[in-house]
Amino acid sequence: MKASSKKSASSPANRAKDEVGNAGELQQQAGGTHPVMTTQQGIAISDNQNSLRATPRGPTLLEDFVLREKITHFDHERIPERIVHARGTGAHGYFELTQSLSKYTTARILTEKNVQTPVFCRISTVAGGSGSVDTPRDVRGFAVKFYTQEGNWDLVGNNIPVFFIQDAMKFPDLIHAVKMEPDRGFPQAASAHDTFWDFISLMPESMHMVMWAMSDRAIPRSLRMIEGFGIHSFRLVNKDGESTFVKFHWRPKIGLQSTVWDEAVKLAGADPDFHRRDFFEAIQNGTFPEWELGVQLFTQEQADTFAFDHLDSTKLIPEELVPLTIIGRMVLNRWPDNFFAETEQVAFCPANIVPGIDFSDDPLLQGRLFSYLDTQLSRLGGSNFAQIPVNAPKCPFQNTQRDGHMQMQPQKGRTAYEPQSLDPNATRASIKTGFHSAAVQTDGAKSRIRSESFADHYSQARMFYRSQSEVEQAHLASALVFELSKVETEHVRLAVISQLRTVDESLAKRVGDGLGLKSLPAAVKPVVPVQDMALSPALRLIDRMKDTLEGRCIGILVADGSNNESINAMKSALDKAGAAVKLLAQKRGVTLKDGSYVTVDGQLAGTPSIVFDGVVSILPMAEAEKLAHEAAAVDWFRDAFGHLKAIAACKGTHKILEAAGIKPDAGVVAPEDIKAFIKLAKTRQWEREPTLRTLA
Ligand code: HDE
Question: Using CA positions, which residue lies closest to atom 24 of ligand 1?
Fold first, then answer.
């Protein structure tokens, strides 16, 4: 990587400069111009290592403004983390429209083709704190800020197209239930505990999202391999004021892929930053994460024919019913200069929309329109956070809002009010070019009544489960067994099973069996009959993996005396197929068969096979025999096999496989069989799974 190679290239002279003058360079990068380190007031600092003392061993003096300023600033470095989605990874990039929606909207971002609009995208987990791991079972947030020429448009979505609840009123309860339990302060970043499942068991509308959250979607292999969904129905409004409903979808260019559960758990220990590192490395290496933007467009008349309410966020619109049209692509090609300034301080808000796009009456969306700005006022310390560079529009902006904490703009002029007559150049609203809300008719009495059209909580949950492939159904059922096995309170476990019976009897039975129940509790009686909707194969994941090694990483285990020709042949074929390749050995350096000395990318014990998508070993017999007695090597293969990965194992490696108790199957080939290995590495060996573990 660039950063480390830069460091190792540092000469003694540079190092000396690092110690004295480099801070000055950093200051310059940060925007300053002073050649040496200064205080915030610009006073050059003579010594940044020793505080001012009365005598060399005497008390420190209060007058030491350099020390005081440094410590004070440090004391205030932290800001509140996000109440949800605290852990995130962000990057800059651009969006480019490939198909115009000018028939439906006036928004230039959706009508002007081949224009590159800058974006900032942040992908996050939901439940864990900002220091939590990357791979828990969780929903992933997928937020994109488009810096359009008509102002900022934020599409703040998730990687799952539906949500747990129908009404914003329930959001604080949902989040309190999933977060660590307040009396004990754990578990962190996990839904497998009593309070979450207690809430879920009493919230039938959550069943559809529960199916998704228990599916492999919630344990992605990489942030580059997830979809994104705007979830709610939004409106597009055209020049005649006519509106069309729209749902937004992001489709990853390199396809969808997930981990297996045991792998996700082990990744949390092996590399808590697994997703962030993968994203960072992809961008540094120029293999930029990319998504297509798709839309489902439908009219009110079409919506009236749906068997569900399109304003209900616990429902999706099957692609078989309203097909997806791809209209553009997003490429993320620049890692932020500073994590805190950009990824941490970025403030997304679903209320940030541009003329030509509008909200729908989805009650979940309506609540969100309030929450984001509200929470950001305290998270970012006041009402001027839109002036932080990552949040500021890249088009001109002006208004009569003034003052407030951290005001950065020395706004000119005498008049900060409207109407006014003193300043002919002062800013004014424009009925012609300004934002207009869609002229939606409303009529009726105010009430706290939920529409009857929101009453069916089970049909789509059933549709989702039944649409999954056999392997995915088994994973989903096993995930439920795992989660519920962590729930200590029996009546909560049983209440969830009662819900599951109404979703799908066979699923409830599998979960009940997995938990060792002798009999199942009675099924919940739904308020409205559950419908057997047409299945939607588009909802599967495994079937939709792409036939590619792009974005995947292969580990090659080598040792002293390994055949360099075999290594090179495998490496170049993998390179050609688009995979990243890393060499591993017991030590960081090895001497290959031809006498060449190679510094490898990782040490075996510190680089478990969990971080790879397929593994190869090219070892001389004697070295392989030695490794058969090394736990790290045995675990390396046991995990790769257990996580259903392709293995290219040389003859000697079979000794290690034996020590790992592995009976080679069709997913284990010789390293000479490069073509076969590449084909196998593009997927997981699903047929191996039933031979390894009992799935529910
Ligand atoms: Fe959010 N959500 N949310 N949410 N949400 C926040 O805003 C909220 C919901 C989503 O990377 C918060 O700045 C309410 C659905 C993402 O910075 C907060 C409701 C979807 C992110 C908030 C929802 C999301 C957030 C916390 C129910 C998918 C991270 C920090 C009505 C469509 C954005 C912040 C980032 C963040 C409120 C439900 C997506 C508290 C009240 C549904 C991706 O304002």
Answer: 157
Pick out the residues of the known binding site for heme: 82, 122, 171, 368, 372, 379
The string of DSSP letters for 433-448 reads: TS---------S----
- pLDDT digits 0-9 by tens, 482-508: 999 999 999 999 999 999 999 999 999
85 classed as catalytic: yes
Q: Which domains does the chain have, with CATH numbers?
A: 88-161+208-387 (2.40.180.10), 463-543 (1.20.1370.20), 549-691 (3.40.50.880)
Considering the candidates 92, 152, 158, 159, report the single residue annotated as catalytic.
158
Residue 132 CB coordination number (10 Å): 18
| C-alpha 431 to ligand 1 mean position (Å) | 31
Atom of ligand 1 nearest to the CA of 364: 31
One-letter amino acid of 282: A
Q: Which residues pair with 602 in a beta bridge?
A: 584
Ligand 1 mean position, distance from CA 208 (Å)? 19
Reported pTM: 0.94
Look up the ipTM and state it.
Answer: 0.96
Nearest CA to ligand 1 atom 14: 368
How many angstroms separate the CA atoms of 439 and 436, rounded? Answer: 8
* Phi, psi angle pair for 592, to nearest 5°: -80, 175
For 229, the token pair is 């969904």
Angle at 681 between CA 680 and CA 683, to 5 degrees: 80
